[in-house]
Give the backbone structure.
Amino acid sequence: FVHNYTMLRYCGNTGAVSGNIMVGGACGDANFGCFATYNNGKIAGEAQVGGILGAGEIAVVHNAINTGEITVDNYNGNSFCGGIIGKADLTSIALCHNYGKVNSSGTHTTG
């Protein structure tokens, strides 16, 4: 978790990341600014899984790129899975691109 008023800039991930919920290439759960970040690694989890952020609330994601594969294996249904962000609440996403494959056995899945 990254706290209020924190900025994540000019960083990236190239390794595999796995977990249960709120799993992301740059950060799992955030309410902050995320600028010029990338993910090339495989990201896997059960819910709220994204290439850059697993979950974001009142966050700004700008100029992020994901090329890694995202996999969610959730038998309960609500997976919230996406190439850039898994679950977003009151979050602004701009100039972001997902080129990675997104696989989900649940619902609420975006590329």
